[in-house]
Amino acid sequence: MAADAADGAGIFIEQNVVWLYTENLDRLAAFYRDVIGLKQVLDQGICRVFQVSPTGFLGVCNKPGRPLGTKGMVFTFLVEDVEKAYEHYKARGIEFDGPPHVSGGKTVYSCFFRDPEGYLLEFQEFNDPRWPYPEGRGPRRG
């Protein structure tokens, strides 16, 4: 589903990329490719881009002098089953901040961890019927 631009000019957002910066591109790219299992779709030399969802991408770049920006940023992977993701990635060596837990007034079920650069990552289920779930799916938890 594409979003209309706020001004209604008929401009549609078709895809999105979140960019993370690093001083060790090979290490960070290997984490997202080999540990998380994302498909690398583009190698630009100083940047590599991974597909997260049909229209969502994550780019990692080595640009000297660029602030790393790990403070105040969370990259959330929305998944169907947080417990399954937690067990799967724990077995692959990811150290989580703790087990999955409920927050957000019981509308969020999630667990947190960090990538090798220190960026905060989260596996999350929304449990809110107002969320635009993929077709044929709704909240898993009551």
Automatic annotation (TrEMBL):
InterPro entries in the cross-refs: Glyas_Bleomycin-R_OHBP_Dase (IPR029068), Glyas_Fos-R_dOase_dom (IPR004360), VOC_core (IPR037523)
Residue ranges of domain VOC in the record: 12-126
Transmembrane residue ranges: none
CDD domains according to UniProt: VOC
Protein name, per record: VOC family protein
Species for this entry: Falsiroseomonas algicola
